[in-house]
Design goal:
40% of the residues lie in helices and 21% in strands. It is α/β, with parallel strands linked by helices.
């Protein structure tokens, strides 16, 4: 599979299983492009995949041809048409595994929430052994990853059982960064280009917080957690940060919330003045996110701070009085060695944060690294992750939330580890999808949770100038928030 812009044909005959088949292909060729067709006449070039369901729906057939090799064709009869999609993906999975030598550790599991599947089986009363057997048989997940998912579910379950589904969490988006990291796919904007928009953005965001606050009060809704993310919230000046946090304090009752987090993020944006603002206005949890302490790697990914700067920022947060600090690391960054990652992780453990999140590098289309194709996927990310799991657990950091993404190096995962009692409620809520999340600010998304776990989303405009220019039209959508919260309240009172 080439890393250029040539699109490999995937031909769907007698089915429309585009999403899962493409997801299966990306387990092996994460940065490839695909073109879908419905007839063999759509095959172009010397690479293709066909996925066919027979006219009577009883047989599925996969054919895979890679460059320079003879095509491989395999068929299987299925017990029912409901199994056709899964079995087609399984055929393609096994052919590609044999051809490439790649054995994805999560097997056929392409969804982003593996822990949710474990929790569902726990709720049905299955034992650990039965859960392992079910997920191994259906998805062919390795025992190592099954154990990680199970451990995460065990640590997460006491928290999910205490979720108040009638409450809401508030997400405040600050989509600005000092510079854009090469791996980043978030909608974020450099401060150089955004500085002229900043006064209008802060004003609009405070207006939206007032509107959401009125809705919360009118529906007598409890706010459970607050999370400032981005971007990098501390890209703002101390005064702008204070203005926004004061708007939160004015419009929401923060005296009863369980958690108030601010992503301080980039060490080069953290100052003592900003930390005092964050602490004095109610936030009790922050993140300091070096990603790596290797200065050469930091340069490669576009960071303008050093590893020592990150350590000093952490120590400054401690000095300011924060007793709940998270740090983010990324396994698999370009030019990072396994030894370098181990040194970073060991040093962060020495600093003794309350939680450490280990992400795996994801090559998203909108990230600068995507242009490099598969060359950015050839690194020891799996070795790094394999080191992090036992090392963190042996130091009292337990996995409590997990998610997976498309185009992740080595098909790995992102895991949050925390000392007992320091798990982030918001991180669990956003993954578990059992609580309404109100999003404020540019690129924020509101998730409205209706009866039966039905979710409706309201997306704010992605770019600051759109958010500012079309603010009034956007706020019209917030009427749905009020109706949702009224329904939640009504159901609780029944």
């Amino acid at each position: 599979m080439t890393a250029d812009n040539t699109k490999m044909p995937i031909i769907l005959i007698g089915n429309s299983f585009k999403y899962e088949i493409e997801a299966t292909m990306k387990l092996f060729f994460s940065t490839a492009h695909y073109a879908f067709g419905s007839s063999r006449e759509d095959i172009a070039g010397d690479e293709y995949v066909t996925a066919e369901v027979s006219d009577d729906g009883s047989t599925v057939t996969a054919e895979v041809k890679l460059k320079g090799e003879a095509p491989v064709v395999r068929s299987i009869r299925t017990a029912s048409p409901a199994q056709n999609e899964q079995e087609l993906c399984r055929l393609i999975f096994h052919i590609l595994s044999e051809k490439t030598g790649i054995n994805p550790p999560w097997g056929l599991m392409t969804g982003i929430r593996p822990v949710k599947k474990v929790l569902e089986l726990m709720d049905k009363g299955l034992s650990k052994e039965e859960i392992f057997r079910v997920l191994s048989d259906k998805y062919e997940v390795t025992e190592k990853k099954l154990q990680l998912a199970y451990d995460t579910a065990v640590n997460q379950r006491p928290i999910t059982e205490r979720i108040d589904s009638s409450a809401v969490s508030l997400y405040v988006s600050i989509p600005f960064c000092p510079t854009r990291c090469s791996y980043c796919s978030f909608v974020s904007h450099s401060m150089d280009s955004a500085v002229k928009l900043m006064p209008e953005y802060v004003s609009a965001l405070c207006r939206e917080l007032e509107i959401l606050g009125n809705i919360v009060r009118e529906t007598d809704t409890k706010v459970d957690t607050i999370y400032f993310g981005g971007g990098t919230p501390t890209s703002l000046s101390a005064q702008d940060l204070k203005t926004i946090m004061e708007a939160v304090e004015k419009n929401f009752d923060i005296t009863k919330i369980r958690e108030y987090s601010v992503e301080a993020g980039r060490p080069d944006t953290i100052t003592e003045e900003k930390l005092h603002v964050i602490k004095e206005l109610g936030a009790d949890r922050i993140s300091v996110n070096p990603q790596t302490l290797n200065d050469e790697v930091l340069k490669v990914i576009g960071r303008k701070h050093s590893g020592e700067d990150a350590v000093k920022a952490f120590e400054l947060a401690r000095k300011t009085g924060f007793r709940n600090i998270n740090t983010d690391l990324i396994a698999g960054l370009p030019t990072e060695s396994a030894e370098s990652f181990r040194n970073t992780l060991d040093r962060m453990i020495e600093l003794n944060p309350e939680s450490i999140t280990v992400h795996t590098l994801t090559i998203k289309r909108s990230a600068t690294l995507f242009a490099g194709g598969n060359e950015n996927c050839s690194n020891p990310a799996a070795e790094m992750v394999d080191y992090s799991i036992p090392t963190l657990m042996s130091h009292g950091y337990l996995p409590y939330y997990m998610y997976r993404q498309k185009n992740t190096v080595d098909n790995l995962e992102n895991v949050g580890y925390a000392k007992k009692g320091f798990e982030s409620y918001y991180n669990i809520f956003i993954m578990d999808e059992t609580q309404t999340i109100l999003g404020a600010g540019c690129a924020a998304s509101t998730k409205l949770l209706y009866e039966g776990n039905r979710i409706e989303r309201i997306h704010n405009y992605k770019f600051p100038y759109e958010y500012i220019r079309s603010f009034d039209q956007l706020m019209e959508k917030k009427k749905e928030v009020k109706e949702c919260l009224k329904k939640i309240k009504y159901l609780k009172q029944k």
